[in-house]
Design brief:
The protein has ten helices and 13 strands. β8 (167-176) and β9 (182-184) form a beta hairpin. 42% of the residues lie in helices and 22% in strands. The strands form two sheets. Strands 1, 2, 5, 6, 7, 8, 9, 10, 11, 12 and 13 form an eleven-stranded mixed beta sheet that branches. It starts with a helix and ends with a strand. With 288 residues, the protein is an alpha/beta fold.
């Protein structure tokens, strides 16, 4: 018991300088993947975010909801369709995306935070025109339907929620500026652009891998630190490849917008957010 208590005290003392450094700062966390599916990991993420709030760090949670969307589409007999890794979103699918993301997933997250002792408010990109978007055109001739690219971020409503003592929980549906429509937007770039607009200290992307690996599937080859000017070389060497490319590029976007540090963390590890933010050990890959 004595050793256990000493270990707890050491952990708290180790966290103190990080709490002092980040108190009053904004941290944007993009949440999705396995961390949303597993109840144990879900609870750990929520507990991490509440603890950050309690020590004065302003966490902003940006979330996806792909599995829940697929489940509802399956119930309705709608076959999900993907083009180049992006969900093709026709008008019927867009209704499901908006209902599931802005309704069920968003409000479930808000309710869970509040049941565990935090204070949260649910928002989506339509509120206060938080995310303004145009129809995505990748120049490849493909039509992605109601999938949008964010062209502007109006963060005032998020700042107000933070000032009022709430954890903003944000669903990534955007207000269309080129037509009378809502758009489905990717949560990673949405989080990156929001972090830049808020002048966030950190952007954290929770993923299903340890971070950037020098050798695929070899977790012991984790690259802990990457400078932005190293990204192109890592892409040429195929070290940053596949689904990791857009995540790394989102980090670069955030840094170009003034975010000081970005992190790709393994959402499968319990309390990876706290390990990264409040310990000497850190976790995942930091890009700066």
């Amino acid at each position: 018991m004595i050793n256990s208590n000493h270990e707890r005290a050491h952990t708290l003392v180790e966290a103190l300088p990080y709490i002092q450094k980040f108190t009053g700062k904004v941290v944007v966390i993009k949440y999705g993947g396995n961390a949303m599916i597993s109840p144990e990991l879900f609870d750990a993420v929520i507990e991490d975010i509440i603890l950050l709030q309690l020590v004065g760090i302003h966490a902003v949670l940006v979330h996806g909801g792909g599995p829940e969307i697929n489940e509802m589409l399956d119930r309705l007999g709608i076959e999900p369709r993907f083009i180049n890794g992006l969900r093709y979103t026709d008008s019927e699918t867009m209704e499901v995306v908006q209902g599931i993301l802005c309704g069920k997933v968003n409000k479930d997250l808000v309710a869970t935070i509040q049941r565990k002792g935090g204070s949260a408010i649910g928002l989506c990109g339509l509120d206060g025109k938080l995310f303004e978007a145009k129809k995505m055109d990748k120049g490849d001739g493909d039509d992605y339907g109601f999938v949008g690219d964010i062209v502007n971020v109006n963060p005032g409503i998020v700042r107000q929620a933070i000032d009022d003592g709430h954890i903003p929980v944000i669903a990534t549906v955007a207000f269309g500026v080129d037509k009378d429509a809502s758009y489905n937007v990717n949560a990673d770039p949405a989080a990156a652009k929001l972090a830049a607009a808020l002048g966030a200290e950190k952007l954290i992307l929770l993923t299903n891998t340890r971070g950037v690996l020098r050798v695929p599937d070899a977790e012991e080859t984790l690259i802990k630190v990457i400078r932005v000017d190293e990204i192109e070389s890592l892409k040429e060497k195929k070290i940053v490849a596949g689904g990791m490319i857009p995540k790394v590029e989102c980090c670069a976007t955030a840094i170009a917008g003034g975010v000081k540090r970005t992190h790709i963390l393994d959402g499968r590890i319990r309390h990876s957010i706290l390990i990264e933010m409040l310990t000497d050990e850190g976790a995942g890959t930091m890009i700066y």
